Amino acid sequence: MGVVIIDGSTVRDFVSDEAQFKKSVDERFAALDLNNDGVLSKSELRKAFESFRLLESHFGVDVATPPEELSQLYNSIFEKFDCDNSGTIDLEEFRSEMKKIMLAIADGLGSSPIQMALEDDDQNFLKQAADLEASKISSAS
């Protein structure tokens, strides 16, 4: 387990590094595309968000959200990603929405640094942003 410190500029720099951001998002998309058909279905996206447990906990404490409410939330997220209303999410739609989400996180963080404890093998986007910043610092030395 390791601790990283990030702020909005860390996240913004990660998104601005188009090659690295695209590679990271494309890898995540491929991992979520369970049937390898090149698009994400509602169930594939839902499984991804369920694994993040963003909607089932509040500051790490489990909360009981009624299943119908969870379904509405997941459907709303899917509709946000499915920009062309095709019923699936293609790679371009996924990239576009992930960029918006990451920039919103950057805006929310602003210049206030936060500490995050992460597993060493965790490859979430915020850890990748911190790793990219660390690599720039070490190569400048």
TrEMBL record:
Keywords, sorted A to Z: Calcium
Stretches assigned to the EF-hand domain: 20-55, 69-104
CDD domains for this protein: EFh
Xref: InterPro entries: EF-hand-dom_pair, EF_Hand_1_Ca_BS, EF_hand_dom
Entry GO MF terms: calcium ion binding
Protein name: EF-hand domain-containing protein
Organism (species): Davidia involucrata
